[in-house]
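Page 37, continued from 36.
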């Protein structure tokens, strides 16, 4: 976004959801628990970079942001994530409730981005690579959980459920990405442009 000097094809709503994810996941933990310098720096980086992206999209790159098509209603994602966070939490401490909410919200945070791409009917290669890398980041999380399950007996069922939800959401995108983006610079997304269209 910064190198291209525009926010075309990037969903501000998805970026806002990532701000909410990182603040609810790391906000309290940052001030109450110290694991390592690396861990603390990464938490600060996640929060600061996601806030910076939202800020840039609302100020410097506002004229290039496609607000007309970025219309996915956020309450459809936030409310169910909060309910799942309450239902599937390990305990009812504020930290645990926020953490569980954040993993469910992160699992669906890509929805406004996918909706924007679908509404526009396609994506530039750079936007497609960005979404693919977001999915790749989730794959690394899943590999970490598998490793920790076998090495440490760590088995957070709520994180596994959220990871499964996110994997299902990305599956069709990954298929289309591998099939099209490797060959073309721009690709078309199949139908569904009118889903949740509030016009």
């Amino acid at each position: 976004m910064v190198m291209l000097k525009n926010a075309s094809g990037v969903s501000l709503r998805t970026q806002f959801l990532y701000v909410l994810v990182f603040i609810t996941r790391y906000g309290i933990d940052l001030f109450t628990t110290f694991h390592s310098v690396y861990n603390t720096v990464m938490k600060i980086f996640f929060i600061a970079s996601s806030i910076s992206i939202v800020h840039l999209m609302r100020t410097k790159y506002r004229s290039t942001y496609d607000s007309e098509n970025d219309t996915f209603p956020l309450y459809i994602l936030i409310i169910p994530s909060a309910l799942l966070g309450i239902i599937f939490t390990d305990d009812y401490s504020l930290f645990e409730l926020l953490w569980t909410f954040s993993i469910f919200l992160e699992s669906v945070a890509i929805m406004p981005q996918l909706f924007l791409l679908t509404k526009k009917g396609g994506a530039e290669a750079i936007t497609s690579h960005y979404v693919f890398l977001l999915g790749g980041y989730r794959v690394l999380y899943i590999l970490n959980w598998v490793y920790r399950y076998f090495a440490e007996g760590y088995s957070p069922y709520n994180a596994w459920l959220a990871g499964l939800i996110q994997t299902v959401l990305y599956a069709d995108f990954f298929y289309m990405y591998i099939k099209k983006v490797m060959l073309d610079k721009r690709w078309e997304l199949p139908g569904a442009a009118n889903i949740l269209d509030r016009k």
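The longest strand covers residues 122-124. Flag for discussion at group meeting. The beta strands are 122-124, 186-188.
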